[in-house]
Amino acid sequence: MKTKKYLFTSCCVLYLLVIACQKEPAEQSTISVISKIYHDGKLESEYFYDDQKLLERIDIYNSVGTIGGWEAFEYDNNGRVKKISSYNSFGKVYNVDTYTYDATGHIETGEFIPFTGADSGKVTKRTRFTCNTTGQIIKQASLDIITGEELNYRSFNWFSNGNLKSYAYYIDIPTNPRINYKYEYSPESNLLPENYKHSRGYPINYNEPYFTVNDIRFYIYDVTGAVVTEYDEKIENIQYNELGLRTEMTLTTTYILPVKPSASTTTTIEYKDI
């Protein structure tokens, strides 16, 4: 599933949750930001930043320790992401996402352009975003490229302190609207440190919850609305540095439905000052 493909990357891809609706003020002082992320001792991703201390590039490593590709971020004059380019290991771009903003500065639309296959260089997906009054994305809808009809969407709910509470994915909107899957996050109490906002990049960064919460519950539903898959991720053995940033944690996944053995991984995060 795409939201799980790059845990703590592009895809930090699972609240590193990023909200491009909000404009961050420029900062002049040195700040500690994510540099590298390891899973079970293997380097998974490396982060690079521009002169404005915004995320510029994420290198994504494969299982043999070499760069399997990277994602590059471009911003407008207000520090809002306007373009994300995905590259393969040969340095060739294979798709691009672009974004626009409304007069209030909230993210409004997105377009996806592949650079492989029959539709290379053409817009093949369009997205419409809806934000609340504080600039948080509450809906991300995929539209029919010709008619503009809504095909599917993600719905986001937030805690009062700004942390992601849950999000759900709904499909088959024109014919048989139904929920496909859902994530729930807890507890509410831990605020996301400002440091992580420099690493957000994406309009929504599904990795941020891993820096605030201790429990993530995931569900998949069938066409009748019944739960067919359920698992629980516990984040434990959390270590912090002197700035209160998580440097190490153990993720234990318990499979509730269908039942199968639990699995654990250890994530380690390195930081650097910029």
Radius of gyration: 18 Å
Mean pLDDT: 91
Q: Give the overall shape, derived from the CA principal axes.
A: globular
SS-based structural class?
mainly beta
Biggest beta sheet summary: 16 strands, antiparallel, barrel
Care to count the β-strands? 16
- How many structural domains can be distinguished in the coordinates? 1
Structure notes:
It is a single chain. Strand 2 and strand 3 form a beta hairpin. The two termini are 33 Å apart. The protein has one domain: Porin. The chain is built from two helices and 16 strands. The chain is an all-beta fold. The radius of gyration is 18 Å and the shape is globular. A 16-stranded antiparallel β-barrel has the order 1-2-3-4-5-6-7-8-9-10-11-12-13-14-15-16. The longest helix has 4 residues.
In short:
The chain is an all-beta fold and 274 residues long. The chain contains two helices and 16 strands. It has helices spanning 2-5, 194-197; strands at residues 32-39, 42-49, 55-61, 67-75, 81-88, 93-101, 107-114, 125-131, 137-143, 150-158, 164-171, 178-186, 215-221, 227-240, 246-257, 260-273.
Primary descriptors:
mainly beta, 2 helices, 274 residues, single chain, Porin
Detail the topology: elements first, then pairings.
Blueprint: H1 2-5, E1 32-39, E2 42-49, E3 55-61, E4 67-75, E5 81-88, E6 93-101, E7 107-114, E8 125-131, E9 137-143, E10 150-158, E11 164-171, E12 178-186, H2 194-197, E13 215-221, E14 227-240, E15 246-257, E16 260-273
Antiparallel strand pairs: 1-2, 1-16, 2-3, 3-4, 4-5, 5-6, 6-7, 7-8, 8-9, 9-10, 10-11, 11-12, 12-13, 13-14, 14-15, 15-16
